[in-house]
Write a structure and sequence with these properties.
This protein has 413 residues and is mostly helical.
Amino acid sequence: MLTTLKKLGPGLLFAGAAIGVSHLVQSTRAGADFGFGLLWALLLVNLFKYPFFQYGPRYALATGESLVDGYRRFGKGVLSFYFLLTFASMFTIQTAVTIVTASLASTLIGNFDPIAIGNLTISSIQIWTVLILLICFIILVVGRYKLLDVLMKVIIITLTISTIIAVCSTAISSSETISFTQIFPDETSWVFLIAFMGWMPAPLDISIWHSLWAIEKNKKEVSFETKSALFDFNIGYIATIILGICFLALGALVIFNTGEVISVNASEFSQQLINMYTKSLGDWAYLIIGVAAFTTMFSTTLTTFDGSPRVMDRTTLLLFKSVGKTTYLVWLGILFLGTIIIFFFLSAELGSLVKVATVLSFLTAPFYAILNYKLMTSKHVPESWRPSIKMHILSWLGILFLIGFGIWYLTIL
């Protein structure tokens, strides 16, 4: 058991990055608004995105290089486009996930007294945001990949256990009749359906982070080879599906048909989420729900804080031939400062900025899917690592699904 757990790593980091807003917020809202009616959408999008996420660690182990290096094979223009996409979205996405984490910490642990610095007043949420970013920064600077690997095992196990306990407790105490009738929302909810499916289980560019994590794991663990890498990925991917279903179930069992409306404000949502569950289940559930929600968002905050600087480090090296072991730390510092600046000085525009970033990630999903597929089927990948006939078919269907999904989104704007 311990040997198996030791071999796990990048798959759990993937799960930590994926299980965040898409699960805690979007899945809960899907259950709250539609009961179990959108379960089909959750399962379908996970199926069609599976090949392209799997190609991240698979390509890395097959070739010894990351997907970033693979994109460079398509020309400097492709890699430059990826660099710009990542730079355009990394700060707002990091700010968004950190604010939700800070709001949950404030709700669970308590508020700080506001701090006045000249004409600037720093609120409790802002203090928590800076504190959480500092904790993540220290973890990544001091421990690098090794400490991140160990911490994510603890976080994902805690998250999974607490969430499953919450679902089982809710199901047992619920007196409502559970209906699994599947529905397709009317046009008033199409935008939500697109957001739900577009971000479930995560944006496709996380596959690039995964390829870099797999290379790091292979450096630390000699036995992390073909079977270990795919087993590790499948464990992480299955965990994201199970927890997506769990949060959808919590929304369906606790909020559906109650008339409650989920707030779009991070601070209000955090308090509302925990209050809804404790009101339904009792005060004893406060800690379980709180731990499940906080670990969900902290895992996302920590892994995104590592993932973006890691890919920017490698992309910068390939584009500008930069050398030096401190490039990762430089990008880590840039992301830290950029996130704080956006939160402190552009918070009024954060909603619009996040929307732009999420739309970019959503509309570029076919771009990542096609590139990942082309790399895995290219001649420089050993034949034994290339996709099977089943994976070829699933990849083609997935690409058609993502392109069709994007066209549909553009037609209803």
